[in-house]
Amino acid sequence: MSANINLFSPVVLGPLTLQNRIAMAPLTRSRAQTGDIPSELAPQYYAQRASAGLIIAEATQISAQGKGYAFTPGIYNDAQVNGWKKITEAVHAKGGHIFLQLWHVGRISHSSLQTGGVLPVAPSAIRPEGQAFTETGFAPFETPRALQLAELPGIVEQYRNAARNALAAGFDGVEIHAANGYLLDQFLRDKTNTRSDAYGGSIENRARLLLEVVQAVTEIIPGERVGIRLSPVSPANDIADSNPEALFSYVVEQLNRFNLVYLHLVEGATGGPREVADGFDLQILRKLFKGMYIANNGYDRPMAEQALSSGAADLIAFGRPFISNPDLVERLQRNAALTPVDASTLYGGGAAGYIDYPTLAA
Hints:
Blueprint (H helix, E strand, L loop, with lengths): L10 E3 L2 E3 L3 E3 L17 H7 L5 E8 L16 H16 L4 E6 L17 E2 L8 E4 L2 E4 L4 E2 L5 H17 L4 E5 L5 H6 L14 H4 L1 H13 L5 E5 L13 H12 L6 E5 L16 H6 L3 E5 L4 H9 L5 E4 L1 H5 L3 H6 L29
Parallel strand pairs: 3-4, 3-14, 4-5, 5-10, 6-9, 10-11, 11-12, 12-13, 13-14
Antiparallel strand pairs: 1-2, 7-8
Helix pairs in contact: 1-2, 3-6
């Protein structure tokens, strides 16, 4: 990697040529309409941010069962696909590129968010610490129901179907969400997976569902249009593993079979410190992976430029700064001040704090 590479250098990502190396990280905003259809304001929200080299759209449930937060969008029926179509068209009209993040939350849900009021599902019946965001406010997490062996092919099919729907909605690709303590991450980790069948125990067994999901998705969408997100040392959503370095080294080596276009890594604790006690050097994974590497977590411009020029990353994902700075790319380019996020309008609501943040030009 050369010192000439910077945030504003174009980059080839699979079949796409991105105008810069800035990715918009997936950001849950909880503004979906009834039926988990994306908000009518979402096309404008995403189009405002289309100067990013790549937009990774907000986490989107692959099935009604995969839902874990109030007012989040889905990608499992025609009405949702049509809602997303308006968004991809708006982004493409501005010259942008957009992937969809495929999401099943597993145990990070609540019976009030599940069809028929049933318990959320998980690898094992272990209740997470914390609270669920429901339509009536926060409620303590419940003890989930352990998935039966016979149900796992159905979970894989949910991902396959979601990949098919993402193509129908006009996305340039998809990102498989296997980070932050959601279902695929729950299967990977020994804190949340105490199964004694072919999907529990050894690292190979715990990685099995994830690799079956990647296989299914890449049968619908070629690997050159599929990325994956991992968070090897993040404690998000009460997740942990006794040997994350061995686990994620194995996972990343196995992922190379599918020729995925990128590995999107949360470096450190999700939305928190980059340094984690007993954490390992995540560059091990960057070196093991054969595709592009997107670094994420607390980057500013100097950190991002250092990571790119040293070869530690190929793209940098920015999250919260994109919420309050629709023109983040221009602001970074001009070293302009960033508008701070209004925390009170992050989740739920309408246009306020969603599509009304000012640009430099304004």
